[in-house]
Every structure is written in C-alpha cells, then in structure tokens.
Design goal:
The complex is a heterodimer of chains A (393) and B (182). By secondary structure, chain A is an all-alpha fold. Chain A has 16 helices and no strands. In chain A, helix 3 runs parallel beside helix 14, helix 9 runs parallel beside helix 15 and helix 13 packs across helix 14. In chain B, the strands form two sheets. A three-stranded antiparallel sheet of chain B has the order 2-3-5. Classes of the chains: A mainly alpha (393), B alpha+beta (182).
Chain lengths: 393, 182
C-alpha cells in the first residue's frame, strides 16, 4: 500500500519534481537570481511548446472525429493512422506564397498575424494542469483570463481592417460585435462559481471543488451551460463561426491571409478552443481532481472530453444568423446569467458551505430556474405540432 | 421544448459517430487490407462509406470506355480478331495499326501485330462498334496513369490480349452484350 502510494505520488508530481530537479541542478553553479530567471524562461518555453505540440494532434483529433461524425474517415494517409497530418499541413502552408494586399495597411496587416497567438499563450499561464502544476498562481487568475482573452478581439479586428477587403472588414466587425456580446454572459456565469469559492485564483477554485467533494457542474449546471455556450461563441467556433462564415463572407477576417500568417490564425484558434475547454474544466469539472489516475491525466481527460463536445457541436449544428446570434446573447444568455448570479448569491449566503445540504440547495435552485425559464418561454411545454395543409385545387 | 431539437440533433450525430466504429468492427480485418473489388454500401448499412482508393477500387460500369482490349475465344484459345483492319480505318485519330499474319491459324486469319496508341485515342468507341467479330472491347481498366507520354501508353498485341484474358476470360465483354446504339 505504501509503495503504491509512493508510485502514485511520483507519477502525480513528475513534472513538478522535474522542474524542481532542474532548478537544483542550476543552483549548484548559478546565483539565485539567475536560477529564478532561467526557471521563468523554462516555464514559458514549456507552455509554448505544450501549446504548439498540442496543435499537432488536436488538429488530427478534430479532423478525424468530425470525419467520423460525417460518416467518413478523417485524414488517414500520412503517418500511422494519419497522425502526422499536421506536418503535411504545415509543409503545405509554409511553402505557400506570402501575399500582402497592395492597398492594405502593411504594418497592421503583418502585426495582426502575430497578435492573436500571444493572448492564447498568455492564458495558459494560469491554468492548473495538475496538482502544483501551474506556471503562476495568480490571485486574480480568472480576471487575468478575461482581460487577456479579450485581446484576441483586437487582433482579429486589426486583421479585418488592414486587409482592405469588404469581406475581411465585415468579418472583423462581426467578430467585435460577437466577442464583446458573449464576453458578458461568459464572465457573469463564471461569477457564480467565484462566489462559491470566494477567490479568483484558479488553483483555489480547483481546491474548493475538492472541499465540496463535488465538481461545480453539479452545483451550477446552468452556469456551466451558459459558460460553455458563450465560450464557444467567444472563440468563434461553429455554430457561432459567423466571423469566418465561408458561405456568406468568403473567410471573414482571414480572407487575405495565406501561408504562415494563415497558419498563425489557425494556431490561435485551436489553442483558444483548447484553453476554453481547460478553463471550463477548471471552473466546473473539478480541474485535476479525480480518483486513481494522476492529477494531470484527469485534467487532460476532462479537457479533451470537452473538446470532443466542441467538435460534436460543430458536426451537428448549422451556423446562426447574425440577428439570432445577438438576440441569443442579449435576450437569453445575459438575463439567465444575471438570474443565476443573483440566486447563487442568495442561496450561497443562506446554506452552509462545503456541505451536501448546500450542494443540494444549489442544485435545486438551478433546476427551478431551468424549469421556470422553460415554462416561461414555452408555456405549452411541448410545442404543438404544426398542421400541414396540402393545397388542393 | 427549449433545446429539444438541439439534443435530438446531437443524438443523431453521436449515433453516426459510434456507428462508424461499429461498422469498422464489422469489416474486420481492417479495410486497409487490399481487396480486389469494393462493393458499394447500401443505404441501410452503417459505417464510414469512404472508398479507400488505392486499397479498394470500384468496378467500373459495364459500358465504361477504358483502353481497348482484344478478346480471346475461350473454347479454341485463339484471338477472335481476324485482322480485317476496319478498326484501323474507322479510327478518327489513327491510333490503331493492324497487320495481318501470312498464315492462318485454325482456318482463321489472325493479326501479326496490333498497335494501339493511347496517347491519341479519345475513347470514342467507333472501333468497338464496327468490329465484325466483337473481338475488340473497352476494358474496365481505371488506372491509366503513366510517367511520360510515348512508349508507355502504346499497347501491343500481347498486352491487349492480356487485358482481354484478365477482364473477359469467357470472351464476351460487356458481360451482358447490349445492342449498341447505331
């Protein structure tokens, strides 16, 4: 039993111990400030390489699963089971001609290709990937994510503006409207969780779920759905991919981009999609908490399961219209998030924290809200069947 | 009810997703093993319907116009062609060259050489229509790629007979001989 415990501890803390071992090796011949400096860079490098490396197979994961959903095999030619498809894509993108629109704003156009990638990597800095596996335990972690996450909007608008192209500009404008609208329900729905925890730090949020002995999805199912829906819209994924809706505006803000610059946008999109899954895991699914398996394994299982849900949504739902999109944000998500916030504050004040009674009260509150809204919006519960009248002459 | 349609759609896609794996299990050993001919999936069959092309190939339609082949009579084992030269004369692009052998084989004229040039052939099918012995036919050969023009795409007598023996061992092609529109 003791030995098992030790093995578990070793596997669980393998990355933390690796970094600790590395710093002690450095400390043998370097002053303290240099070790701190190098360790900072090593952490950043590790995160960047994780981000870039995960693209290699997130790409294949997404394409294979969407293929299966559409009754076909995804890429399966290059490498075993097509796992090296990303390499082929990259070679293709890198060897393409780099075109810059002659009348566009050259400086902003080129800058915009780099800009979206930076905030995506910045977000990864505060996500706890496992027990003790966090780059910086910021005490304003969630606020930081919100602040950094909205930087992506500017990059996309820069791209849309600098391309000097009708479609790009339209895509950019849509992005701004969409991302600003959906940021509000996203943050408001997460505030309910923050109320229960009493801290903005993501590490604290995960640990609080350990204290409740329940993931917050049980306590806050409505908030989870609201968060996930608005986060999907926030990263411009289907069914909210209006900024790049290819059936309406050629490719939106990336119309004029080709080659490596296009690849940068793609990279930002994939990492963004992963990081919203990671944040949702941290906030609602208990982060790295879980039995038997090591903590980082649990984190990635949950995050990639959520990513599967993203792909699943993409394979199922058609794109929304612009007015539907705005209506959905302002008339459905924002009021629901506000109601949820209000009632969560009320219930959390009344019931004891970290107890099953409190959890049950919160769950009941959520169910009441959901059923209430369903009854309020659709009084007949089940929509009556429309009668089909065949016109006879 | 709110969201009912979404849930229904999600269940449909999830079912299709799982069924591709179940369909793969049904096709054990894996589809990547080379199989001579792929049978099209019916509408009720489940699973991924992609044809994994180099490993699986569809058989072409009976009236598909591929490169020409010369048919052999299975009973006598002799080439059905009597080297009359009609195909050579009717060919609009002059892709066919036939020479007649001096000696008869089993009281039948046979060609000595037959040269069919796929570089210029446009697969119009006049030669097949005009052949009095039904000795000439379009083979269902699909892969006509070659690395350069010229010799690689010129078939000689032996190659054309080989195509015929491979695709129509009983000397009739298409299998159900239809009346050609004249």
């Amino acid at each position: 039993m003791q030995a098992l415990q030790q093995i578990y501890e070793f596997v669980d803390q393998i990355f933390v111990n690796l970094s600790f071992w590395f710093s002690t090796q450095l400390a043998a011949f370097l002053p303290e400030w240099a070790v701190t400096f190098i360790m900072m860079f090593a952490t950043v490098l590790a995160l960047v390489f994780f981000g870039l490396g995960s693209i290699i197979w997130i790409n294949v994961y997404e394409r294979k699963l969407i293929g299966r959903i559409q009754d076909r095999y995804g890429p399966n030619r290059f490498g075993p089971w097509g796992l090296l498809q990303c390499v082929a894509d990259m070679v293709k993108l890198l060897t393409k001609e780099d075109v810059t629109p002659s009348r566009g704003d050259r400086l902003i156009y080129n800058l915009a290709a780099v800009a979206p990638v930076i905030p995506t990597f910045l977000v990864l800095a505060v996500i706890p990937f496992g027990r003790g596996m966090v780059a910086t335990n910021l005490n304003i972690g969630f606020l930081y994510i919100v602040a950094v996450g909205s930087l992506g909007t500017i990059a996309i608008f820069m791209a849309g503006w600098a391309s000097r192209n009708k479609y790009s500009l339209l895509g950019g404008m849509r992005t701004v409207a969409q991302m600003i609208s959906y940021e509000i329900p996203m943050v408001l729905s997460a505030v309910g969780v923050l109320l229960l925890v009493g801290s903005l730090s993501l590490v604290d949020i995960v640990e609080a779920q350990g204290q409740w002995r329940l993931p917050f999805i049980v306590l806050q199912p409505l908030a989870f759905v609201l968060y996930f829906v608005s986060a999907v819209a926030e990263v411009n994924r289907s069914p909210f991919d209006l900024p790049e809706g290819e059936s309406e505006i050629v490719a939106g803000y990336i119309t004029e981009y080709a080659g490596i610059k296009f690849a940068m946008f793609l990279l930002a999109e994939y990492i963004n999609a992963f990081s919203i899954c990671a944040i949702a895991t941290t906030l609602f699914l208990g982060g790295w908490q879980g039995p038997i398996l090591p903590s980082w394994a649990w984190f990635f299982i949950k995050a990639y399961f959520l990513y599967f849900v993203l792909i699943w949504l993409r394979g199922t739902l058609p794109r929304l219209r612009v007015d539907q999109l705005m209506n959905f944000a302002w008339k459905t998500l924002v009021p629901l998030a506000l109601v949820n916030l209000l009632l969560t504050a009320l219930v959390a004040k009344l019931v004891p924290a970290y107890s099953l009674v409190g959890a049950a009260a919160l769950l009941i509150m959520n169910v009441v809200v959901i059923v209430g809204v369903a009854l309020f919006k659709y009084p007949g519960w089940k929509r009556e069947k429309r009668e089909v009248v065949l016109v006879s002459k | 009810m709110l969201g009912y349609g979404i849930l229904k759609g999600m269940s449909v896609t999830l079912r299709r997703f799982i069924e591709t794996y179940l369909g793969d299990l049904g096709k054990f050993p894996w589809r990547y093993r080379s199989r001579p001919e792929y049978k099209r999936m019916g509408v009720t069959e489940r699973g991924a319907f992609t044809i994994q092309y180099p490993e699986e190939t569809l058989s072409m339609y009976p009236r598909y116009r591929g490169p020409l082949m010369l048919l052999t009579d299975p009973e006598t084992g002799i080439n059905k062609c009597i080297a009359c030269g009609l195909c050579e004369r009717t060919c609009p692009t002059e892709s066919i060259k036939v020479t007649r052998a001096e000696e008869k084989v089993d009281d039948q004229r046979v060609p000595e050489t037959y040269e069919y040039d796929m570089n210029t052939c446009m697969f119009c099918g006049f030669c097949v229509q005009i052949c009095p012995q039904d000795a000439l036919a379009h083979s269902p050969e699909l892969e006509l790629g070659a690395y350069d023009r010229g010799e690689a795409l010129i078939l000689n007598l032996e190659q054309m007979l080989e195509l015929g023996r491979r695709h129509a061992p009983d000397g009739v092609w298409p299998k159900q001989k239809e009346a050609e529109p004249s």
